[in-house]
Amino acid sequence: MMNPSLKNLCKVIPGTIIDGKWHHNRYTIIKELGFGANGIVYLARHNDAQVALKMSDNGMSVTSEVNVLKSFAKVQGSALGPCLLDVDDWERPGKKVSFYVMEFIKGPDLLTFLQQKGADWTGIMILQLLADLQLLHESGWVFGDLKPDNLIVTGPPARIRCIDVGGTTMQGRSIKEFTEFFDRGYWGLGSRKAEPGYDLFAVGMIMVNTAYPGRFTKKSGGINEIMAKVRQSRDLQYYESIIQKALTGKYRAAKEMRQEILGLHQPGSPHGSHTRRPVRPAGQSSQAGPALGANKTRVRYNKRKKKSSVLETVTIILVISLLYFIYIYSQIT
Predict the structure, then answer these.
(1) For 151-210, what is each residue's pLDDT tens digit?
(2) CATH number at residue 16
(3) Catalytically annotated residue among 57, 88, 145, 164
(4) What is the C-alpha to C-alpha distance for residues 140 and 134, in angstroms, rounded to an integer?
(5) Crossing angle for the helix pair 110-117 and 196-211, nearest 10 degrees?
(6) What is the total count of domains within the chain?
(7) Beta strand pairing status for 49-56 and 39-46?
(8) How much is the pTM?
(9) Which domain holds residue 213?
């Protein structure tokens, strides 16, 4: 929970002009987007473009989050967090407020997106998330406060993006921020040490959250309570073994969990007879039957075409032979 005095200090109304002390950029506040333990995020306008501006009176917190965003920018092939645009201070009467400006990522949060598209998209989006987490972990960071609220889906094509890097922590340290439902310490299933398994536990709980959008209150805690909820959901039953491994720390890396989800949809999988359609890259048809029928039709067409070509060739040879015979006969007579 954010310190009330900090929230009051950083609280501004729409239309407020934020003047950067050092870089002299001006930002017009449009509305509040959200707040956390270390500051408030606003939607703002700068040179006719929308940006996200986070302000805090904790300069060290701003520095830490800026360093995270800079680290994200060095991770090649990933769209982990928003792009960093500016870092500055804003002087209010008697107070200095630090702020940084980042790309405004527009789109629905993960749960809203899945409610619109359907449960078949869960696997696709989790695969994207795990690919990004693998890169993040390889760079020495753990996201920490990983939850659907911090995951925005942009597009088309649909692309998951991580926002609010305030909880991102260097591996080996204690998690800085967390949300109880997605925290393994809350459920008694591990420590709050920043390591890949902490994020993967959260991924498992995000999958659970897709079936229980309102979440549920812990009673006794432990793996049995969560897995009982998993087994009550037909959509989650498909991923039951993967969720259990994620919640009990069986995966050493995000790529292992990702590989198992991909393997779940391969021919010969024990779940092959399940009614859920296989996970496919966006844009690829999921209608295997019609595609297979089209291939058979194409084969039959090629066979007929080949047979027709042979008959046509034979006919031409016969005609030419007949004409040649007539020519020879006419010369003799």
Answers:
(1) 999 999 999 998 888 889 999 999 999 999 999 999 999 999 999 999 999 999 999 999
(2) 3.30.200.20
(3) 145
(4) 10
(5) 40
(6) 2
(7) antiparallel
(8) 0.77
(9) 110-264
